[in-house]
Amino acid sequence: MNGFWLFALVLIPFLGALCILWVPSRYRAYVPAIGFVVGMLNVLVVAWCWSQFDATSPVDQFQLKLRWLPILHVSFRLALDGINILFVLLVSLLVPFTSLLCISMDDERLKSRTIALLMVQVGAYGFFLSRDLFLLFVSWELMTFSTLFLNGSWGRQSFESNRRFAISSAVGSVFLGMCVFYMGFRHETFHISELVGSFSVFEQKLCFVLMVFAFVRKAGLFPFHAWFPHIVPHAPVSGAVLIMGILIPSGVYAVLRVMLPLAPAAFAEWGHILMFFVAFGGVYASLLSLVQIHISRRLSYIYMSYMSFSMLGALSLRVEAVQGALVFVLFQCIAASGLLFLFAILRKHFATSRLAELGGVAKRVPSLTTYFVLFVLSLICLPGLAGFSGEFLLLLGLLSYHPVFAIAFGLSSIFGVLSLWELVRQVFFGAAQGKQTEEIQDISRVQSGWLVVFLCLLLWGGWSPHSFTHRTSVSVSALVIKLQQAVKAHRVMRTRQRVEQNERR
């Protein structure tokens, strides 16, 4: 019966999208409100699951298994554990927020965009909760396609940037599809737990390469990051929030949940190369943020840097690093979503995102400035706000793995702080630029409502991080121990093989 709650998470937004489909065009102004109500229903379901979740158990909870396509060995498997519960919470918070962003819009495609938003939620829940590779792949495609539709047709610049995203997503989907279908049909099952440990070393290496191209590309990390900084400046704020808050973290989750358990032998041999590129990409992105002249691109590169080191924490196979990466992703996504919304208000008024054309905003919009500074403080991990606990755990884990990675993370964080504070100084406290500064309106009460919710979560995570970390600790420890044992066993086997080869010579 507990599995019903996870099925409800997927079913509610799907039914909401069907209801919106039949809303007459003359009532389209009410469509975002319907999307918000549907999102809040899922918030209630997630709150119930959060309260009933047993943090002391490493096994899957709220399990659901339904026969789906038995001829293809596919089943509808959903489960909740200490790893995906934070991602489910993140999705539940961002969808009502993005629905609120659409309330002020009045255009002919409002219905289709709200439907696309709810379908992103359906795909995201299916992706994070799935225990079946085929269901995970289908949910991945649904989430990506819906985001593409939501971002499309917002002008020529948006079309060009969305095309880059479409090409990158298509390439990643091809690689992931090849890997998923090979695994499933090769062993006549798509159940992830049944596939673990069933591949030869060669098969693991093949699948490892395919999944790296798919998941690292989806996460927008170096060297597959070219699409990410280009789409955020031109996408609607709702689309940008979904990309930074759901699609990018999905790549980090997939590496931890799918790639590492299915290909530990390949990771044991090639993991250090991947970690080097990820760490280099994190420092590289933070350095690039210092020279960006557009607010959106600066935020994109800073976010890319933080997600790079979250990925590095997941790859380090250290309990503290993995746990810190999960918490870090959750709260950085919330802070980045708030900053994107506030940036959209500034861009709408000034019709520009260039730092040189903005200034003196704090005098006219004190409320917006306050929110912006608070979200920036959380993004740079100020003690007392939620980002600090995740950053501290991540730094400890990387330090125990290799000091070089911890130093790289520290340097990247320093560059990020400098970049963000220069942005705040110039935009809000610099010399006023143009007459628009005199006419700008402060943030409204409706707009500030959900931002207050985000800030309360950031304060809660800052002052009581145990509320989040204790729900992940047992599941993370169990997964990391299994991965460490698999990697160690392969390295021992390779050492024995080399010794035997030397003896024969």
Short description:
The protein is mainly α and 505 residues long. It has one domain (3-504). It is 76% helix and 3% strand.
Describe the structure in your own words.
This protein is mostly helical. The chain has one domain (3-504). Helices cover 76% and strands 3% of the residues. The protein contains 19 helices and two strands. It has helices spanning 3-21, 31-52, 85-101, 110-129, 133-151, 156-187, 192-195, 201-218, 228-234, 237-262, 264-289, 295-315, 319-350, 366-379, 386-401, 403-429, 436-439, 445-463, 466-504, and strands at residues 61-69, 74-80. Helix 9 packs across helix 12 (295-315) and helix 14 packs antiparallel against helix 16 (403-429). The longest helix has 39 residues, at 466-504.
Could you outline the blueprint of secondary structure elements for this entry?
Layout lengths: L2 H19 L9 H22 L8 E9 L4 E7 L4 H17 L8 H20 L3 H19 L4 H32 L4 H4 L5 H18 L9 H7 L2 H26 L1 H26 L5 H21 L3 H32 L15 H14 L6 H16 L1 H27 L6 H4 L5 H19 L2 H39 L1
Antiparallel strand pairs: 1-2
Q: What brief labels describe this structure?
A:
two-stranded antiparallel ribbon, 505 residues, mainly alpha, 19 helices, 2 strands
Provide the low-confidence segments as ranges: 153-157
Largest sheet: 2 strands, antiparallel
**H/E element string?**
HHEEHHHHHHHHHHHHHHHHH
Tell me, what's the shape? Answer: globular
Any idea how many domains? 1
Q: What is the total tally of β strands?
A: 2
Round the Cα radius of gyration to an integer and report it: 22 Å
* Helix-strand makeup class: mainly alpha
Residue share in helix: over 70%
Helical segment count: 19
**How large a portion of the residues is in β-strands, by DSSP E?**
under 5%
| Alpha carbon gap, first and last residue | 62 Å
If strands are numbered along the chain, what order do they take across the biggest sheet?
1-2
Mean pLDDT: 83
